[in-house]
Amino acid sequence: MTLEDPRKTLRAELRARRKALVASERIAAANALAGTLDQLADFLVDPRIAGYWAIDGELPLHSVVAKLSRRGQHYCLPRIIGPRQLAFVEWRPGVDLEANRYGIPEAVCSAADLLAPDAVDIVLLPLLGFDRQGHRIGYGGGYYDASFAFLRGRSEAGQPLLIGVGYAAQQVAAIAPAAWDVHLDYVATEKELIDCWAERA
Q1: Per-residue model confidence as pLDDT tens digits over 26-80
Q2: Under 8 Å CB-to-CB from 31, ≥6 apart: which residues?
Q3: Cα torsion at 28, 69, 156, 14 (round to 10°)?
Q4: Backbone phi, psi, residue 182, to 5°
Q5: CATH class name, domain 4-74+120-200
Q6: 85-90 and 136-137 strand pairing
């Protein structure tokens, strides 16, 4: 059995778990998430925060984005620029969006607007599942792992900080990492901010 076989099964289970959340739980979680992230001092001051456009039941970031705007921080969305490669584009309400090949909205921009992965300060990563040690199950495309491969193998938090974002219900006991996985520095849920380095110590 290959590594992808158990991951495929786990992805299906985690999608079903997330889909089972009712609307009131999703709304409450979205509002609570902003407070969770504000527990991290860097999140209150770093100028460039990259996130995602929530789809398919992902934990929405609208409350987070509103707080960033009020603090004068810049919110960036990912944009596919090549095979398994992301860049980031500053986005604010009113900026045009267009769907990428997966139907995910991306900010319309020129090449000059693109920010390399190492040019943002913090990245909020969507996920299907996570464990407390910073291992993440994504959707299998490998875009984040490839784009942030320069952070692989580090022994402390780097630049940018990688924060997985998900519902507490998406936590699993342990995820077997693959060789290409890039570990998260933190995980933020509606209930807590998990310092993955402390959990691994």
Answers
A1: 999 999 999 999 999 999 999 999 999 999 899 999 999 999 999 999 999 999 9
A2: 63
A3: 30
A4: -105, 125
A5: alpha beta
A6: unpaired
Beta bridge partners of residue 86, listed in sequence order? 80
Total Cβ atoms within 10 A of residue 167? 21
Helix then strand count (H, E) for the chain reads 6, 11
Distances (CA, A) of 85 to 26, 63, 96, 147: 30, 27, 22, 5
Dihedral, 71, 136, 141, 23 alpha carbons, nearest 10: -60
pTM higher than 0.90, yes or no? yes
| Amino acid at site 191 | K
Q: Where are the domains of the chain?
A: 4-74+120-200
**What amino acid is encoded at 11 in this protein?**
R
89 within 8 A of 107, measured Cβ to Cβ: yes
Region class of 124: left (phi > 0), else alpha (psi between -120 and 50), else beta: beta
Give the CA-trace dihedral at 102, 104, 109, 115, to 10 degrees: -90
